[in-house]
Each structure stands twice: as structure tokens, then as C-alpha cells.
Amino acid sequence: MKRFTFMASLLMGLTFIGNSLFAQITERQLPAEWNNLVNGGRFMDRFLPMKGTNLSSDIWGASCVKPRFIDNGIEDCIWSYWGGNIVKADYEQNKRNSLADKSRGRF
Known about the structure:
- This protein is α+β, with helices and mostly antiparallel strands.
- It is about 20% helix and about 25% strand.
- The strands form two sheets. The protein has a two-stranded antiparallel sheet. Strands 3-4 form a two-stranded antiparallel ribbon.
């Protein structure tokens, strides 16, 4: 009985591990229509490079995010900004807002 329990447990464990290793791998080809997208048609096309001229390491943050442009519109010596979700503001004009919090001080 002990041998049967051991073998059953081993078999179930190996089955679980085997299925877990390959559960997230799904190879798919990209749709052919994606080759005909206009510039800006993909979501990632909406993210543009941050513009700035004042590159500095003398700013808050971890070393992996330094140096960065501090004249990008959201860096400030007095205020801290924390972002939120982008929400659709006006359905007729197709506008969106990004909610943000502005608080005094650096964190």
C-alpha cells in the first residue's frame, strides 16, 4: 500500500510539474493585417520619447532611473507627482485624461 501511494504521488507530481512548465508557451503567428497598420495604429505607437534638454543625476529616485531629463514637465524640486489611470473624458471628442496627484515634498 505504501509503494502504491508513493508511486501515485510521484506520478501526479511529475504530471503537475510537466504541465506547469509548458502551460504558458503558445507560439502564434502575427496576423497578416498587422503589416498594413498605419503609423499610430498600434498601442505602442502612442508612446513617444520624452523630450528634454536638462539631463541630471541630482534628483530623487533609484540609480536605475538616473540620469534623466528633469525639464520633462513632471519633475519638480517642491512638488511630487503620482500618476493614475487614463480615463476617457469626452466620448464625443474622443479625449482622455490622466489623473495625477500633486503633493508637497519629495519622497
